[in-house]
Amino acid sequence: MIRGDAYGDVIAVLGRVYFARQASALLRYARSTNNPELAAALIERAANLKDRIDAVDRPMPSPRAPDVEIEIVSDDGSAAQDS
User: Which of 13, 18, 30, 61 could serve as 42's disulfide partner, Cβ 3.0–4.6 Å?
Assistant: First the structure.
């Protein structure tokens, strides 16, 4: 995701998917190497990325979009709006 800050500069925001892909790649490389020290270092870095994934604050999804209005129709056919 890319968004601008108050000064008009563009800031790249790395998301959960990016970190998950990076961690997955590190684990694949760790499995493919014959060097135990390198494998341990790669696994440690993958764990650090997993911690970053878990630390990303995700907003709770709302039950409906904020701009949605629901029309409630009573038994007598009259309509009222719920907002």
Answer: 30
Q: Which of 25, 1, 24 is nearest to 11 (CA)?
A: 1
Pair 13, 1: CB distance under 8 Å? yes
> How many Å apart are CA 52 and CA 47, to the nearest integer?
9
| Structure tokens given for 78 | 């009259």
Closest CA to 47 of 20, 29, 16: 20
And the tokens for 55? Answer: 């630390």
> Which residues, in sequence order, are CB contacts of 80 under 8 Å at separation 6+?
71, 72, 74
Is 23 buried (19+), middle (13-18) or exposed (0-12) by CB count in 10 A? buried
Supply the pTM of this predicted model: 0.53
